[in-house]
Amino acid sequence: MKRNQTEKAERLFTALGDLDPQTVASAAAYIPKSTRKGSGRRIPIAILAAALCLCLVTLTVFAAVPSLRRMLNLPFLSEGGRQDTVPEGWVGIYTAEDLDNIRNDLDGQYILMKDLTFSEDAPHFSPIGSADDPFVGRFDGNGYVIRGLKLNATQELPPVVETQYLVGKETRTVTYHDANGLEPMYVGLFGFCGGHNEFPGTSDVYPYLHGDKPYEGMISNLGLENVTVTVAEGANVYAGILAGHASYLAGCYVKDCSLTVNGYTPAAEYGTVNLYAGGLAGQAQLMDSCYAQAADVTLGETHELYITPYDSFAGALAGDAYTVITSYAEGCSVVSDAPEASVGELWGHICLLPRLMNSKQFFTVYEKYYRATHEMSEDEPLPEDWIFPSITSPDHNWADFYCKKFYSYFVPKELGILTEYMGFDFDDLNPALLMGEFSPDYILYVYDPAVTMKETVMMETELTEKLGVETLSEAMTYDNFKIGPLHCYTLDPEKTYKRSDFTEFDFGNIWKMKDGRPVLRIFED
Q1: Where are the domains of the chain?
Q2: Comparing 260 with 456, which gets the higher pLDDT?
């Protein structure tokens, strides 16, 4: 690659982190031909996909392209082992006091330089960062471990509201606690990691877009052992041993840790909760190369509060997650006092709907769904109004209703708006790097942030039932976009494993086998 091309790529990736421009340029050759035509000013689709998907925390996975797969890990994980000296621009963490002082500068870059062990009588730790004042820096655990930490938290009762409904001919007034009216509480070593932004052209806060610098709230190469996190009472809680909400987790693990999240005791007639509990994170946007061993995750006392599968989630890795790759859990206990909660060995809920789709992917998924709901074969011609079906027919066509609903969940946004929002300039890109031509008015479909978790889960269930998991997965990976889990495992403590059991785990740089288990290399070397 010529020098001027490299310099242009380096300038572009200042906005994305320390990615290798040569790697990106060579990877672009794998873009399908069908994506290469367009009009107007041009932008490289490989670079754009990486940029948008990392900033939106919607993973772009090219499983057959090792260079792009490595690109996901390159800025996150230390392939060269521990740092013996504090890098320039970073702050070394040597003591518990240093760790606690991170909350005084949530925009800094920190690196752990030794194991930290908290004594039994050490005061309880408070989460670093909140939704109002999030951690937007970087924390590199550097292959060291924090042990013995204890966190206790209690949330105030949600506001009491009144509602009226008819019982026969009588109107009854009921009081209830509105958990949705209470600001969420984020509990863990880190509370809330990552920035908030208003989505372009709207007033909606959209946590998947990040602000001034790449990888805001990144936590990597960190181990937690014998850590206890307890939420004594909570109504709207995101709790994890490592983080309440995590934008990026890479190369981290928890071992012999426990997390318990209890509901509150309602004072009104009825009460609701929104509880997210995960071994590593209550909610995770992107989790890469992480694991949980012997972690206990419990949704405890719920005091007969109203709980549904759409508002309480628990898992060994995360309560709720958008993308989790090359990760596993072993010997973990995940239980709930409320059987209605969504509880899973790895996660309580993981998204099956991408947060970002290009037009081809969106209409591929939509067409498959339309054909399935209308019982049409693959070769049967589509009606003229299939994209905007009518829902006014007197027989209440539910197939058209659901298709219309799916369509409404995504907001078409011009590429120029998104790239401008993230600081990219079409005119500042070197033509030598361009593998596809896209104009600023090229449309991408972004998941509407106003859609609730309940609506999301119900639509995912509907898609799974109509298309099947395999077909849905195939549709969601059209044009190489990916959301959800990829190469994640639940291990049997009684079984011994081999490298070949873990597809796509990078044993050359990130992982190594020890006692029949994959462990993160930086903690062992």
Answers
A1: 1-50+415-442, 91-350, 356-409+448-483
A2: 260
